[in-house]
Structure formats: structure tokens, C-alpha cells
Sequence to fold (370 residues):
Amino acid sequence: MEKTSFKSGIQLSSRSIMIWRIVQTAVWLIGAIIVFCLLFYPDTGINLFWNMLIPSAPLLLVVFTGVWRNVCPMATNALLPRHFGLSKRKRLSTRQTAILNLVATVSLLVIVPLRHTFFNTNGPATAILILTMAALSFACGFIFEWKSAWCSGLCPVHPVEKLYGLKTMVSIPNAHCTQCRNCVIPCPDSTPDVNPLTTSKTVYQNIAGHLMIGGFPGFVWDWFHVPDHSTLTGLQLIAAMYNFPLLAAAATLVLFILLKKIVGKINQTILISIFAAAAVACYYWFRIPSLIGFGIYHTDGMLINLRGVLPQWMVDGMVAASTLFFFWWIVFRKTNQQSWVIRPQYALHKEDVKRNSAVTATKLNHTPGK
Fold:
């Protein structure tokens, strides 16, 4: 076994690791149960996944990004080969990581509109989507080092993590990576106040970052103005799914680029936080009403129908409160320089270990009395 030496960092105790492994396994099993329901009890599975799990995810990403990074079932799945010593542990170049980031962003913008015709009302189709991602995540972990290929690369949720997780509440210990081997530079998990343009050193990362920050608010806003379709086919279906979200995304992207030039680099972080808050606030502006029967399209995305129970003013109040909360949290709340998780101790490479051993031997040889 390769000997390893460490620099300063935070290491979890055996007991803490065991607790995190139990939680990770439990969340993974919940995901497996949801997939089972999607296949054999579609209505239940759709409610569990699209109307319960997914609506809670943005809030979790905003407030406790590190918790999600530690317990995400896809991350657990991707890191199984590494934890069991089966990963080939290949390293990605900066350019390769950037390409994966762009692919992840484009995949997000392609997959989400498909909900309106394939996934929102089709349990088996959603299960196939989840299982496909599970296979991709496992393959990424089998070939590449730690979180580099999936969690910080190809995962379509990762661009949203970087957009929404600008001001996470607290940094928690990394419950996956036992050592830091700099598999991604900079590491999104351990970089304080990371955002989609933090890693804009290549054209791919620059495009991906601008698409997420500038385009996502418009994309989210108009996505909710498209109903679930079950009868359209061909070009009509494609136009119905993509026209409005992509056109709105292009509009807010152009607005972001113009404002970015006006405000300059000094105020760029504030501008990014405004667009991030706008995106997540837009989501809950429409998602809260639709969950309880007050949506634009009455039954689309409905978990429980409370239209005859709650007054409209109460629904409007919940929507307004969520909007105020997200703008306060992301824009006006003081930056705390928190990273999502605390970086574990660095693992030195074999060359560093040999160098340290040689230095130690030299010191011993020059010790008086030797």
C-alpha cells in the first residue's frame, strides 16, 4: 500500500465517518425506493420524486450545500469504486474538466424541458433517467479520481449547486474524500464563496458560467409557463418544450452580460448573487402554488389540492416570503467566506514522501553524537 503523508487539514473520526456512512446509505436506499416506485407504482413515485424531493432540493442547496454534497445518492454511487479501492483514479486535465462542466450545463438545459412531455407524468421514463445517471456516475468514479468526473464535472445538478450555494450557512467536514489529492483545481467543495465563474479559466468554463448565471433566471421563469404535454409530437413538441425557456434564457443572458460590463469586476459578485437569487426565487414563486393546486396549469406538478382550503392571499404571502428570504440570504446577507465542506488533509505524492524521508535522514545524520 502506498504510504501517505499529510499536510494540515480536517480528518473525521472513525465514529463520525461511520455516522456519515449510515446517513449516506439511508439516503441512497431512499433513492432506490423512489426508483422502485417510479417503475411499479408510477403515481407514488412521481409524487415522491418530482413533487417532494425535487422541490426541497433548491432550498437545501442554498442553505446547506455541503450537506447535500455529503449525502447526495449519486455522489455516493459515484464514489463507491473509490471507497472500495476499485477506481483507476485517472486525473482529468483542466481542459477536460471544463468540457465536462459545459456538458453538464447543456445537459441541464436539455433535460429539464423534457419534464413537460416525458418525465413529469411518466414514472418509468423518470426511473430510466435516474438509472442512466447512476450508471454514468458509477463509471465516472470507476475511471477517475474522487469527485472530479461526476460530482465536480458531468453531474447536471452541479452547475445549480455553484449558482445557489454562494452563501452556504456553515462548512461541514468532507464525508467522502478522506484525503485531498487536488483532483479538481480549484475544488468547488473547499473554495469559499464559489460561483459558476470562479473557474472561468477556459472558454468552456466561461460559456458554462455565463449560461448558468445569466440564462438560468429566464429559463426557470418561462419553464413554468409551458404546460405538461402528452399529445404533441415531432417539431410541435420540440417547439413547445424549448422555445419559451430558451428564448427567455437568452434574454436574461444578454442582460447579465450588459450589466456585467457596466458594474465592472468590483461589483461582479453582487451581480452574480442577484441573478442567483432571482433564479431560485422564480422557482419557488411558481412551484409553491403549483404544489398546492394554485399553479398556472391547475394539475401540473400538484402534490395536494388546497384550492378550496387556503385563501389566495395566504398563497401569495408564502410566495412573497420565499422571495424575500432568498434575496436576503443570497444578496443582502453578509458574506461569511464559507466553503461547502472543509478540505480534508492533503495527501502528498510518493515523490513528496521520498523527499521528506530524505530530509529527515539528513537531519538525523547531522545530529550531534551520531
Summary: The longest strand covers residues 172-173.
